[in-house]
Amino acid sequence: MTTIKINEHSEKGKALLAFLKAFHVDKKDVQVVEEPESSYNKAFVAKIQKAREEKGIELPADKDIWEIIE
What InterPro entries does this protein map onto (predicted)? Predict the structure, then answer.
């Protein structure tokens, strides 16, 4: 089995996906499996990844951690 990732937002990706969906009508040879999109906010994920790279910070009691992480 081979997995193919298709960017469904591009013009070529849309065309290929439409072709595959039309091609596999009632056939067991080809299956189109759609993965759900991530529920995480991309900006939030970027902040967490940046924080992982840092050695550490000291958090004063009166500050919010999300204000410190940029």
Answer: Uncharacterised_MJ1172
